[in-house]
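Journal club prep, notes for RB
We'll compare a predicted complex against what the paper describes. Inputs for the magnesium ion case:
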Amino acid sequence: MPADATSAAPLLVARDIRVHFGGLHAVDGASLEVPERSIVALIGPNGAGKTTMFHALSGFVKVDTGSVLLGGRDVTRKSAHARPGLGMVRTFQIPTVFTRMRVRDNLLVAGGHARERLSTALLPGVGRRRAAEVERHADELLERFRLAPLANEYAGELSGGQRKLLELARALMSKPRLLLLDEPLAGVNPTLGNELLDHIVDLRDSEGMTVLFIEHDMHAVMGISDHVVCMAQGAVIASGTPDIVAHDPAVIDAYLGAAVAIEEGTAHD
Ligand SMILES: Nc1ncnc2c1ncn2[C@@H]1O[C@H](COP(=O)(O)OP(=O)(O)O)[C@@H](O)[C@H]1O
Ligand SMILES: [Mg+2]
């Protein structure tokens, strides 16, 4: 963890977020902070409101109350469409790659390539230069995520794990400051999962990126997070270092339960 991670001003601040679906208060007054250049895990049982919190942070639902600040700027009323341009990008629990499009084209579209090509007609030179830059960035990411050999495959042909990698690569096309990842390891085999975790750490360490991720795999959470936030029933019930949150009685009660007790038991053997 970088030495300044805890002292840095938070890049993302969410205050008192409330979102309801009919009579159900999916997020019920939740607040969290994500320091710049840190990796923060959002954990909690199914139905806790984690994904809905992500929807609120990324503008996919309208919040009833509360505010979202990105780099000190209030983005609460900004559309989901506008937020990548402000430096915030998210991925989904179920990857949203274009299955009937080739792998490389998935990246080009995410980088606004088609738009740049179009603008070539209006602004010759400028559009072409930008389009070439987008292509270079896409090829760099394909290499980095070892997807280059699959560049011309249809995304629909990829394994679940490869789709997760492609979705992460797509998110990186807009060079975000803040990356929101909803269950990046779900459905990913352990080898690819470890690779993904290494990528996430590398994004923080070599690119200064900030990552908030939802995850159920506690080994992954404990292994790479600087901070952990736990939600249950729409509220944040604990936040702090991974160690403190994992030992918080409220967290054990609402979420970790026997899993931690078993692990602790074997640790003492
Ligand atoms: N679009 C929706 N319409 C109605 N209820 C929803 C919707 N999305 C989520 N919910 C409900 O909101 C609660 C929180 O869900 P969610 O945010 O997906 O939790 P988590 O990601 O922590 O599992 C759950 O009770 C879920 O059934
Ligand atoms: Mg979820």
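Talking point for the session: The domain at 10-96+174-268 is CATH 3.40.50.300 (Rossmann fold).
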